[in-house]
Structures are given as C-alpha cells and as structure tokens.
Design goal:
Length: 441
C-alpha cells in the first residue's frame, strides 16, 4: 500500500513537472521583452487599424518602419479617401508629409520618445514592462497582456496586446475606453525584426516623391526593404520612389514664434490677409514661399526655416502632386466638429477675406475658449519650429506653443487649426478626431 502511494506521488510530481515545462510566467516574458528591446536594430510591419470613434468604423492601413538609433517612417492610408500621410524622423528632424497634395511640415521634436503610439513596438513593450498590475493570458500562438493604456487621451483606459510566442512580434492590439468598449483595433498583417532598408528610405525628398510619381503605392515602405532572411520584402518592392533622385532645396530664412491670440480671435494664416485670420504659434504647414510677407507677430525667439521646392520638384514628379492639389481647391463650406466639450457653445463664424485659400473660422466660448480655422492653402512649405507630434486617429497633427497652443493638421486637402489658451490637449484631440469624417455645409 505504501509502495503504491509512493509511486502515485511520483507520477503526480512528474506530471506537474511536465505540465510546467515550456510555460512562462509574466515575469519571464517581461524579462525576454526587455532583452528584445535592448537588442532592437530595426523592424518593419504593416497593419489594419480600425477606429470605433463614430457611428461608422474607420479603417486605415498603417505601414511602420524603424531603424536604429531613431529613424522612423509611419505611413497611414485612408483607403476610402485614397490619401496617405507619412510621419518621418531622420537626422534633419520630424516631418509630416502629405505627398499627394505636395504638403510637408518639418519641426523639432523628441517624437516618439515623448509619447506613445499604439503601432510602435517600443510603446507596446514599455506599456507591458511599466504596468506592475499587468495580467497575462495565453492562447495557442500568443501571449496576451492586459495593461493600462498610456496614450494622450483620457478616453483610452486599457489595452490588450497580443505577442507571438515564437519571437514576441505583435499580432494585435485592442485599446478600450472606461466602459470596456474597443475604440482602437490594430491587426498586424506582418511584422519582421532586423529589416534592412535602402540608404534613403528615411529621406524626406524620397518619400515626398514616392507619393507623386503615380508608379507605386503611396503608403508602401521603402523600396528594396529586405527581411532578416535576406529576401525582398514584397511590400517594399512597390514603392514608387525607386530610382527617383532629387536635389536638396535651398533654405529661405524666416521666423516663426509664439504668437499671442487677440481676445477677438483675430489671427493670421499663411496666404491670407494679416488680421483677418487666426494668429498661430505654429510654424506653417503650407505657407507661402515669401517668408517676410507672411511673418506672424512673435513673442518668442523660435527660429523657423522655410524651404521652397528644389529643382527636382519642378520636374514630372511634382506635377502629379500639384495637379492633385489643384483638383481639390475651391470652396468646401463650413466643416463643424461633431464633438464639443461640455459647457462650450459656438459663438460665431466671422467672415474672412477670401484671397484664394477659402478660409473660414469658427469661434467657441464657454468652459473653454478656442477658434478653429479651416483653409485650403496652395503652396508647399517646410518649416522648422519646436513642436509635438500628436496622433488624432487616422491622421497626424502638430502641436505648438506653450501658454497658447495651436494644433494643425491636414484632412482632404484642408488645413485645420485649433488655437486656444485654455483648451486641454486631450479635448483638442477629440475635437480634431470628430472632424475627420465631416463634410462642409
């Protein structure tokens, strides 16, 4: 009897030991993730991001490229509108590009170190490592972490992150609000570590040209990208920039600083008459090439550098972007956001002098006071100023200023600016996101 009991105990111990083999704890996985990030050299991935922020889900293709130490290329394509925006970080700064409209913006920023992005691998790993109350579950192929969401929006509270058991590559991310409703659903089509890129994959002119040649996918990663096995990355072989060369544009010196908005809401937008439109403390996304004629009143000493297109931009590559921009010019009506902060009402919509930009203004007052200016600027400009890149859901905005802040972004060829001295950034983001699919009245 004792012998049987002893043998039964041994069998149970062996069974438990075998059951435990290969099963990692949350701490084990976190340690492995720390090692993966510390050894991270490069990666490339593509994903479909679905936003459930309105009545109808909005889908965006996201293409993510990273190369050590701090080179990034994020291409986000709204297939419904056939428009791609690219965020680029290289040695020259951070750029927000809309190649099809020949629009670009350059600014000084520590992005993405100063904020998280749901599609960046480093952000996901930091969220897991930094949450001491993280929860780990598993399925057949993935480790599934449930952690706090650390994004620039109070509406996003929790997130689930799926990581492949084989190499810890991300396969899916779901970000939820306080009611456990999924607001952002990101599903990766593919993700590869140690991707090799062309020398100019993160070059601004190269990426602007890729969206204007019409020979390839605007949202495609840099051509010739290969994975760690040395095979050509299929998604990288369709970049229209292959073989395209461009000269560096010559700088035109100007200044842009912190402009002070008048109580009346008067301000200035590049390409419009001074005093008729909102003054912005942001360097212009699409300003005139005449820096002095459009220089805003300044209260700071921020240096801005405006550049005009180089010789290559006058070639065939530019004509496609110019034609696309001209095709959407014209009156667009008044586009009102579907979201307004509690205690805020629209005050008025003063008429602005029309000199080709078709600018309109909306002024709001109440709990917060702010203005929204909408315009169709024609000229491309690249400016350099201190700023912060903000993800507003399917698009990118630039936030500038301190005491008075301005958020600037492009949507459907229209430039939007929210300017306020008391509106929180989280509210700006919600307002901006609610404008994305609105049409003019």
């Amino acid at each position: 009897m004792r012998r049987i009991s002893w043998m039964l105990a041994m069998v149970m111990c062996v069974t438990l030991l075998l059951a435990g083999c290969g099963k990692k704890s949350a701490d084990d996985v976190v340690k492995d993730l720390s090692d993966v990030v510390s050894d991270l050299n490069s990666y490339h991935g593509t994903a479909m991001m679905t936003l459930h922020t309105g009545d109808t889900p909005q889908e965006y293709k996201v293409d993510i490229s990273y190369r050590k130490p701090s080179y990034y290329r994020i291409a986000m394509t709204n297939e419904k509108k056939d428009v791609t925006q690219i965020v680029l970080r290289n040695d020259e700064g951070v750029f927000v590009l809309t190649p099809s409209l020949n629009k670009s913006f350059r600014f000084k920023s520590d992005w993405p170190n100063n904020q998280g992005q749901v599609y960046l691998y480093e952000t996901l790993v930091r969220s897991i490592i930094g949450d001491a109350s993280r929860q780990l579950a598993t399925d057949d192929k993935s480790y599934v972490f449930d952690v706090a969401a650390n994004y620039n929006s109070h509406a996003l509270v929790r997130q689930k992150i799926w990581l492949s058991k084989s190499n810890y590559a991300p396969t899916q991310v779901q970000v939820s609000d306080a009611n456990a409703k999924v607001v952002v659903d990101l599903k990766f089509d593919q993700f590869a570590f140690d991707t090799k890129f062309d020398k100019d994959s993160f070059d601004m002119e190269r990426n602007m040209a890729s969206g204007k040649t019409g020979t390839g996918s605007e949202g495609a990663p840099s051509a010739g990208a290969v994975d760690s096995s040395g095979q050509l990355d299929p998604s990288g072989a369709i970049d229209g920039a292959t073989g395209v060369t461009s000269s560096e544009p010559g700088p035109e010196q100007g200044t842009a600083g912190d402009a002070v908005q008048q109580p009346s809401g008067e301000a200035s937008v590049e390409g419009t008459t001074q005093g008729d439109t909102p003054k912005s403390d942001s360097a212009d996304v699409t300003g005139s090439t005449d820096a002095e004629a459009n220089k805003p009143d300044t209260a700071g000493n921020t240096e801005a550098q405006q550049q005009t297109p180089g010789a290559s931009d006058t070639a065939a590559g530019t004509s496609a972007g110019t034609d696309a921009a001209e095709a959407v010019m014209g009156e667009f009506g008044l586009i009102e956001p579907s979201y307004t902060p509690a205690g805020v009402q629209i005050k008025d919509t003063p008429e602005l002098e029309d000199n080709g930009t078709h600018a309109v203004m909306l002024r709001y007052s109440g709990t917060y006071n702010y203005t929204i200016v909408e315009a169709r600027p024609k000229d491309r400009a690249v400016a350099l100023a201190a700023g912060e890149l903000v993800d507003i859901g399917g698009s990118f905005a630039v936030l500038t200023g301190s005491e008075q802040q301005t958020m600037t972004w492009m949507n459907d060829g229209i430039e939007f600016r929210i300017t306020s001295a008391d509106l929180p950034v989280s509210e700006m983001i919600q307002i901006a996101a609610s404008i994305q699919d609105q049409s003019g009245k």
